Predict the 3D structure of the following.
Amino acid sequence: MSDDDHPKILPEERSIFETDTWIKYMWIGVPAAGAFFALMNTVLFFMGKTKPKFGWVDGNPVFYGIVGFVSFSFIVLAGQHLRKILMREEGYYDGPTAEMPRIGEDEEVRIRSLETGGREE
């Protein structure tokens, strides 16, 4: 499916989480948080505060990070293949003539909003 098949998202239809600034913060914040927790786990390991139950396997300071990454990767890769099995054709639920509703393009609502100054009556 190409990008031409989807309606364009207008800037006023985006949520706060879809802004360029928020996405930039997430690209910086998520790896920074992961590095921070890996560092803290390493510090606790060398201080002798961790109590491994299975020897060197879970005694490794980054064991839980590796397990989490491998598990998440498996879920994503399995989801790609499940999509091929479970996916329905375009318009399966709506029919071929369905249109995507656009926020703020209903003429009556727009006129009423202009008359009231954007306030609800």
The CA atoms of residues 30 and 36 lie 10 Å apart. The mean pLDDT is 77. Residues 3-116 form one domain.
